[in-house]
Amino acid sequence: MISAKTLFERAVKTHLEAQGLLDAVRERLDRLEADSTHSAESAQQQTALAARLERAAAAAAPQWLGAPWPVIGEQRFPLEHTARAGDPAMIRIGDAQPLPGVGFPVVVPFTGVGHIALDTDARDPAVAGLLRSVITRLVASFPAGQLRLLAVDGGALGAPLAPFHALVPAGVMNEPVSGLEEFRELLTEAEEQVKQVQAGLNPSPDVLVLVTAALPPNCGRGDLARLAALAHAGPAARVHLLLAGWGSRSRSSWDQAPPLERTTLVTSDPSSRGHFRVGDPPLESFGGEGRALNAAVSLDPAPPPGLIDELCRRVAAKAESDGKLVFDDLVPEKLWTQSSVDGLTTLIGRVGRGDALVSLDDQTPHWLVAGRTGSGKTVFLLDILYGLAARYSPDELALYLLDFKEGVSFSEFIPTEIDPTWVPHARTVGVESDREYGLAVLTELVREMSRRAAAMKKAGVTNLAQLRTSRPDVALPRVLTVIDEFHVLLKGTDDTAKRSVALLEEIARKGRSYGVHLIMASQSIAGIESLFTKGKSVFGQFGMRVALSGGGGILDTMNDAAAALPVGQIVLNDAAGVASANRRARFPDADAPSLHSLRHRMWEMRMPGSPPPAVFIGYAEYSVDEAPPPSRRVVGRRRKVALVGRQVDVGLSSAAFPLDSSPGRHLAVLGTSPVGADVLASAAISLAGQHAPGEATFHLVSLVGAVDEEVDQLESRLLRGGHQAGMLRLPDYPQLLRRLVDEPPKLMNPTYVFVYGADAATSTLKQKERGRAGIDDFRKLLREGPAAGVHFFGWWRGVRRLVDDLGLGGKDDVAGVVALNVKGNEVGSLIGRANLHWQPRHNRALLIDRHEDREELIVPFVSPGRYSEEFA
Ligand SMILES: Nc1ncnc2c1ncn2[C@@H]1O[C@H](COP(=O)(O)OP(=O)(O)OP(=O)(O)O)[C@@H](O)[C@H]1O
Taking every annotated instance into account, which residue ranges of this chain make up the domain FtsK (predicted)? Predict the structure, then answer.
């Protein structure tokens, strides 16, 4: 391969040769003029000289860079052949005609060397033609992916650049911008490349050509100064300017516009309409002597439209296929080799042709991610999480994943019926989580920080790295929590929102010291903007911003770089959204087979016996048969507990109602939902599991025809377990109550009474028999039963019916409530809590224990298939 230096020297030599030839032409022409003889010999010589110049130009700017359009149309030169990023290239801009009938091509140095500026903007058709010509030559000559055009049209409504529209979706060119602000964005982007190269962060960037068909009309002196600075520093960073409309006399700001260095200036020729003058090429090595080219130049016309169309289509298709990133590009060959002592870093894709590396560390401990629906946010998160999981072992990284939307964001991390593997780093995964679950996860994170703080204090160290050194025996992974659609958690002013904000604030402030990181993603920050903009708000701690298409709300208000990003591109900004810190990166799609294969590799590598993540799936139904046994903390040594559901917490423990001998240890399930019957059955099954066969007696009173079958099945199950169980109907119920009052059982042999549809018994119980009403026995048992081991579990389908049954003085005689589809204020008045907050929700219940002053959201246990039945 020819070195850049050689190419440069060759270009210079050719240029000097052309200059020499031009001088020779001039000299010869002068002589011919003096002779006044237009001999056949002189004509021959002119033609020969022109041919030599033609050849010289063709050598300096070969093929697409320099051939006239008719020649290109005929020859079909190969694409992507003649230019390389970083190498100097000359380009043809027109024909010089020193005398009528004598012409030669004008080629000037451009990419790899300097810039081209025209004093006229592209509203002049000749200038528009030249822009199209130069752009076409560049696009055809550079290999796909090495050239990007930053297009500006502040005056001609995009018409001069419109034929190149096919390059926009391929990422080769932006949609031409016309406004001043957008123009400044592009300046920032170009400057950013210069800075990155100067800082050694991106040694081989794309060639970036800032093309202006016209500058925005209100362009100020500061903008011109920025262009001048780019002219000075750009070429070393592969940033070049192709400026039409530079230096129009009518603008006052031009008077003080700094000169453009390294620029070939093309000015309209006032003495010859339609002709231009070409100034000295940049750099002394090109022999610039301040003489300029002493010949009128007609600028190259635009290539035929068909040629541009075909070229753009081909280049766009090639750019897309060549530049295609795949998920496997993000995965290191060897898994789990990195240490997270100083932070977490992974590859997300490419910035230009360089790697896009992103970190969760002391500088950017927390991130905000935003993008409208369909922008690729889920894919981006998968790329990040799988990228990190591939680099860091579960001893280095633990994942807490929370998703508040309907969707499947994190299902790639958990075991399913089809694929029982999981990502071993995942500790808890919430899919379609409740806000309360989010709160529980945040609470757990704060607890983890406290544990780490205590451990640091004990070890006499002040940061995580030191703690890890002092305790090599304990795994202290960095904890990364990802909250997708976090606005759901923070929206509103209820208690959950307030507590969540407080916890988030604490984690955001202190997390960095304890290796606890947050990535919060959202499609919209609408509704939580007040939080977002609050000066010292929680979001101030989120220095790293990742904006996908439509996610510009998390960037600075002046920064609209994310407005029109295609899917697969992001703006990375590690300065809280300030425009100067934008890095535009591409990330790959996370295809299912690659995710599957990486997950399986990691699963095979996990520590034997390491548990799967605790999974909370908002829409899932749970049955008591899947419940883990009640913990000792709840049960104590002898207390039995009735399990009624799952807690909405990080460990997903069972929700339990403990029994003891205090008056009122009974449970009322409230609401018309048939889940009421399931909750009773779950309580019975769980209690049976805590008794030896024959120890306890279960009376099942079925007062609702619709659940007879379910009660029947429960009876059989209890009997099969060796317990004493019997099913009763309404007429037997008062007698049962009377018997239990008259002959209380022994505490050692508890009796459980389950009443399905207890409200159906009210009028029967109110009737007196032999001078005694069943309702009085019922009320007496509620108070005195627990001391004798008698506990009631009743399903009332309305709160008022229960209140009625309890009577005026008996409100306190049922300590436990499971509220299903009943109103919060009714339950509140039952338990004497006017501000009780309960909104009935599908697949949720509120468990209240008045003796323990406890309320918790639970997922009530149901018989398998309960909800599919409901929807059938
Ligand atoms: N880098 C990429 N390259 C190609 N296609 C992508 C890329 N990222 C995402 N996609 C595709 O775009 C579509 C939307 O992606 P994704 O589901 O991640 O969007 P989202 O922003 O999470 O949307 P939603 O919020 O509606 O779920 C998917 O079909 C996905 O395959």
Answer: 353-557
